[in-house]
Design goal:
The protein has 598 residues and is mainly beta. The chain is 0% helix and 20% strand. The chain has a 7-stranded mixed beta sheet with strand order 10-11-12-19-14-15-16, with no helix packed on it. The model has no long low-confidence stretch (mean pLDDT 84).
Length: 598
C-alpha cells in the first residue's frame, strides 16, 4: 500500500508520465520554463492569451481574427501597438475595420486609451495616422491638392481646366463681353432711374421728399399722442421745466410716492389734514402741554393705571369714602400702630401667630400636656442622656435602621444565630474564607463553574468523565500571560482557526495575522464545494521577511479537480492567506493555523 502524497517527482522515471496519466487540469496554474515543443494542434481556451516573446513567427499565410463575430457586426477587427514618445504617456497606433462606420478601415495614432473589442475614435489623443503609399483604384472625397480639374469649365466663353491662367475679352484683353441688364443704356451711375420716398410709421411718423440718390433729402418727424411711455424716459430726466402749471393731478400721483422731501416747510396746514388723521404716532413726545388741553377734557380713560401717586394728592384729601373695603393691608400700617385696643377678643388665632414667637415666658405652668405634643416631635435632642431604658422600648421596635454601622460585634451575636438566610448573595469574599476551608466536598460537582479570571498553582484536574467540558471564551495561554492567538504556548507559538464562505472567482482573504507578531505559519486546509459535492484538502507552509511571503503547497488531494488555489502577501502590516476559487460554486474554506512568533 502507498500512502497519499508519498510519491514525489524523485520517484518517477524520465518520460514515465504520459498524457493518459495526467488529469485534465493537472497543469492548471503551473509555470513552464525552458523551450516547449508541441506536436499537433494546440487549442487555448480562455479569454486572454499573452505571449512575451520578442519574435513570433508563423507559417500561416493568412491570420484569422474575430472568428466568433459571425452573428453580428459589433467588434472592430485589426491590430495595434504600444509606444511612448514622452516617457510618461502610453500611446497606441494601429489599423482596424470600424464596425460603427460601415466597415471602413481606419489608420490611427496617439490614442491614450488602450483598445478593447473596439477602438474609441473619440478617445483622448485619437488622430488619423498618415499612410505613405502609392494608391491605385477609385478614391472618393476631396483631394487636398490637384493640378487640373477633372472636367474643364467655361468662364466668359473661355475653357478653364486649372492648368493655366486664361484671358477674358473685354476684361483683361480687347474684345466684348455679352452682358445683361441696363448697364449698356444707363445715363448716369449716381442716381436712381425712378425717385423714391423714405417714410417711417409707428410712434414716430416721418416721410421724406422724393429721393433719387442725386442729393440729400430731409423730413420732419412727429411723435404720436400717448407714444412716450415710462420705460422710454431716463431716470431723473423730467424736471419742473418739462411740467406745465397745474398739470399734475391726484390721478397722476402713484400711491405713497409723495415723501417728506417733496413737501416744502409750512405747506401742511389744518385744511390739508383729514379728520382723525393725527394719531398718537404723529405727535412727538412731550409736545402736548396744558395749553393744548381743553377744560375738563381729561377723563378716567386718559389716565394710565398707577399714574397718580402721593405727589398728585393734596393733604387729607383721601377719606374713608375714597378707600375700597379691604384695601388697607400690612404695608399701609405704620410699625407698632396696632395696639391691644385695636384687636377684637378671640381675634388672634394660630394662623395669626408667627413661628417660634411663643417662648417659655408666654406659657403658663403645666399648660403643655400630651395632647399639645404632635406625634414624632420628641427627638433625641429633647431627651436627656440615658433617659430611655428597656422599659421605654416596645418589644420588637429595634430594627436595622436603629443599629449603627459596625455596632453588632461578635459578642452581640448568639451561637448558631447566623444561618444561610441571614447571609446576602455574593457577600462572602475570599477574605472571609479561612485557609483550606474550601475542600472538594464543599464544591457542587453537578453544576457548571464559570470564572472570569483563574490562576492556579500545583496540579489541576478539569472534569472527571468523557462527557465533561471545559469552555474557554477568548484566548488561552499556556505559560503565556498575553496570548496573541486562540491557543498560545510559552510565548513561542500556538493555534488559531478561520472560515471563509465564497461564491465568487475573485481573490479573497481566508486568514491574516500581524507580520510583526508571527514569522512562520503552517495551514491545514479543508474545502467543501456544496454545489457539486466536491472536496479538497491540502497543507501549506509559509514564512516572511517583513516584505515578501515565501510559501510552498503540498499534500494536495481532491476528488474532482482542484477547487481553490492559494497565495499569500503582506498588506498594511498583515500577512494574508489569499484564496482564488476555480468557480462561482458555493464553497466553504476552513483552516487551522499553526503560527510561530517572530
Amino acid at each position: 500500500m502507498v500512502a497519499n502524497g508519498l510519491i514525489t517527482a524523485d520517484h518517477l522515471a524520465a518520460n514515465s508520465v504520459s498524457v493518459s496519466e495526467l488529469k485534465s487540469d493537472a497543469l492548471s496554474g503551473q509555470t513552464m520554463s525552458g523551450n516547449v515543443v508541441f506536436s499537433g494542434n494546440v487549442t487555448v481556451s480562455g479569454t486572454s492569451f499573452a505571449a512575451s516573446a520578442t519574435t513570433i513567427t508563423t507559417g500561416d499565410s493568412l491570420i484569422s481574427m474575430a472568428t466568433s463575430n459571425n452573428s453580428s457586426d459589433a467588434v472592430d477587427i485589426g491590430f495595434y501597438g504600444l509606444y511612448d514618445t514622452s516617457g510618461s504617456q502610453d500611446l497606441y497606433s494601429g489599423i482596424f475595420r470600424d464596425a460603427d462606420s460601415s466597415g471602413k478601415w481606419r489608420l490611427f495614432k496617439d490614442l491614450q486609451v488602450q483598445p478593447t473589442t473596439t477602438v474609441n475614435v473619440s478617445g483622448a489623443g485619437y488622430a488619423v495616422a498618415t499612410l505613405v503609399a502609392n494608391v491605385e483604384g477609385a478614391v472618393t472625397g476631396n483631394a487636398s491638392t490637384a493640378t487640373t480639374l477633372a472636367t474643364a469649365r467655361n468662364i466668359g466663353g473661355v475653357s478653364f481646366d486649372g492648368s493655366a491662367a486664361i484671358n477674358l475679352p473685354g476684361v483683361n484683353t480687347s474684345g466684348n463681353q455679352d452682358t445683361s441688364g441696363n448697364a449698356a443704356t444707363a445715363t448716369t451711375a449716381t442716381a436712381l432711374a425712378t425717385g423714391r420716398t423714405i417714410g417711417m410709421t409707428g410712434d414716430v411718423v416721418w416721410t421724406s421728399a422724393s429721393f433719387t440718390g442725386a442729393g440729400n433729402v430731409t423730413g420732419t418727424s412727429t411723435i404720436q399722442a400717448n407714444a412716450v411711455e415710462s420705460a422710454m424716459i431716463a431716470e431723473n430726466n423730467v424736471t419742473t421745466r418739462e411740467i406745465a402749471a397745474n398739470a399734475v393731478t391726484s390721478a397722476l400721483i402713484a400711491q405713497n410716492s409723495i415723501l417728506t422731501k417733496h413737501i416744502d416747510d409750512g405747506q401742511v396746514n389744518t385744511a390739508q389734514l383729514a379728520g382723525n388723521s393725527v394719531t398718537a404716532a404723529k405727535i412727538q413726545a412731550n409736545a402736548v402741554a396744558a395749553s393744548e388741553i381743553a377744560q375738563n377734557s381729561i377723563g378716567v380713560i386718559h389716565i394710565p393705571d398707577g399714574l397718580i401717586t402721593a405727589t398728585q394728592l393734596a393733604a387729607n384729601s383721601v377719606d374713608s369714602a375714597e378707600l375700597i373695603t379691604g384695601s388697607i393691608d400690612a404695608i399701609h400700617l405704620a410699625s407698632s400702630s396696632v395696639i391691644t385696643a385695636k384687636i377684637a377678643d378671640n381675634a388672634v388665632t394660630a394662623a395669626k401667630v408667627a413661628a417660634n414667637v411663643i417662648g417659655s415666658s408666654e406659657l403658663a405652668q403645666n399648660s403643655v400636656t400630651a395632647t399639645h405634643i404632635p406625634s414624632g416631635t420628641i427627638t433625641a435632642d429633647l431627651m436627656g442622656s440615658n433617659s430611655v431604658d428597656s422599659d421605654e422600648l416596645v418589644n420588637g421596635s429595634i430594627d436595622a435602621g436603629h443599629i449603627s454601622t459596625s455596632a453588632v460585634t461578635t459578642a452581640k451575636i448568639a451561637d448558631n444565630a447566623v444561618t444561610t438566610a441571614k447571609i446576602a448573595t455574593n457577600s462572602i469574599t475570599n477574605l472571609m474564607i479561612a485557609d483550606d476551608a474550601v475542600t472538594g466536598a464543599k464544591i457542587d460537582g453537578s453544576s457548571d463553574i464559570a470564572v472570569a479570571s483563574l490562576q492556579t498553582t500545583g496540579n489541576v484536574t478539569a472534569g472527571n468523565g468523557t462527557g465533561d467540558k471545559m469552555i474557554v471564551s477568548g484566548l488561552l495561554g499556556v505559560q503565556d500571560t498575553n496570548p496573541p492567538q486562540k491557543l498560545h504556548i510559552d510565548e513561542v507559538g500556538g493555534f488559531d482557526v478561520a472560515t471563509l464562505s465564497s461564491s465568487s472567482t475573485g481573490q479573497q482573504t481566508v486568514d491574516s495575522f500581524a507580520a510583526a507578531t508571527f514569522r512562520t505559519a503552517k495551514y491545514l486546509i479543508s474545502i467543501t464545494n456544496s454545489t457539486d459535492g466536491d472536496y479538497q484538502a491540502l497543507e501549506l507552509l509559509l514564512f516572511h521577511d517583513g516584505t515578501t511571503v515565501y510559501l510552498t503547497q503540498y499534500a494536495s488531494i481532491f476528488d474532482n479537480g482542484a477547487q481553490v488555489t492559494f497565495d499569500a502577501d503582506i498588506n498594511s502590516g498583515s500577512v494574508r492567506l489569499r484564496a482564488t476559487p476555480a468557480s462561482t460554486d458555493n464553497m466553504t474554506i476552513k483552516v487551522i493555523r499553526q503560527a510561530i512568533e517572530v
